[in-house]
Amino acid sequence: MSDIPPASNENQQAPEESFEELLSAEQEFLHLLIRTIGVSRSDSHDVLQEANIYLIQNSSKFELGTNFRAWASQVVRYRCLSYFRAQKRRPMTNLSEQVLDLITQEVCEQYEETQRQLDRLEDCLAKLAPEQSTTLRAIYTDGLSLKEYANQTKKSHAAVRKTVSRLRQLLKQCIESYEKS
């Protein structure tokens, strides 16, 4: 795996983050990438562990402040190719390495966009009044049905449904305002 390029300077990380913090923060993303490339669910954790071992053993090749995700993605890509060679098969019906590169790039971009959207949603949720947050948490986090929440709060089902609909619209407008700015 000596042909893995050094980390690029694009999308630089905060310089105060340590290698261990960067590696830890990217575990979910790296696992998603492995699964997207086509490694079976049962083998994906093994491939991730092999990639983590390589990353740790070669941590001196990574320059803090550069794009850790891009570097780690390339390591994962090579580990996946190694997995497929060992299994004597190609990923997802014989994909070329160029297609794997495109998949890796697309997964990185989509994951980053999803993270931006989640950050916007978190900011918008923080702007809600406590009662509004409690209502949404009960419905979406605690899993109460609108009817259950209405009974719990001694409100009508229609009132709760309308409140949740308004809150969702408020959140949508808030998120869209970030996209326009």
Quaternary state of the chains? single chain
Which percent range describes the beta-strand content?
under 5%
Classify the secondary structure makeup into a structural class.
mainly alpha
Distance from first to last alpha carbon: 43 Å
SSE layout and pairings?
Elements: H1 19-25, H2 27-37, H3 41-57, H4 68-86, H5 97-126, H6 130-141, H7 146-153, H8 157-180
Q: What can you tell me about this protein's structure?
A:
The structure is a single chain. The chain has 8 helices and no strands. It has 181 residues and is an all-alpha fold. Helix 2 packs parallel to helix 4, helix 4 crosses helix 5 and helix 5 crosses helix 8.
Supply the key terms.
single chain; 181 residues; mainly alpha; 0% strand; elongated; disordered N terminus
